[in-house]
Amino acid sequence: MNAKPRWLTPEQKSAWDGFIRMQETLIGRLSRRVQADSKMSASDYIVLANLTETGGGRMRFLDLAKLVEWEKSRMSHQVTRMTKRGLVTREECPDDGRGAFIVATPAGYKAIEEAAPIHVEHVRRLFIDALTPEELSTLAQISKRVLDHMEKQPD
């Protein structure tokens, strides 16, 4: 790697810095609100929301880790903490001895059902309400384009 760095232009750096600051501030505030309002960590919320919204309450461990972009060890520690609190259970996969399913328990469903309406109000207040419908549409298009681009790139 002897190639010269392709430094960001002032406009590119401004866009990048603004995006990172916005993202970190938004996630930080939403995380603190989730904790204060529901006594769940932001990580608890992410796991339960993804299990119940996209997995029907049950997902393979590695699929869940990939979906939330976490390392296996981080997901394992998170699932262990949530299992101790009765929010999820781990079930062995009958057709793969090394695989496991993570399953939302009734207590996990109750927790996410109570937290989600409050969380979405904070998302609206801090993010959605700051943008016009046109800006939201543009942001959705940009987000999809960047995500599609990243799928084509090596980690």
Automatic annotation (TrEMBL):
It comes from the Bacteria. Signal peptide: none annotated. Residues 1-148 form the HTH marR-type domain. InterPro entries: HTH_MarR-typ, MarR/SlyA-like, WH-like_DNA-bd_sf, WH_DNA-bd_sf. One of its GO terms (biological process) is response to stress. GO terms for molecular function: DNA-binding transcription factor activity. Coiled coil: none annotated. This is MarR family winged helix-turn-helix transcriptional regulator.
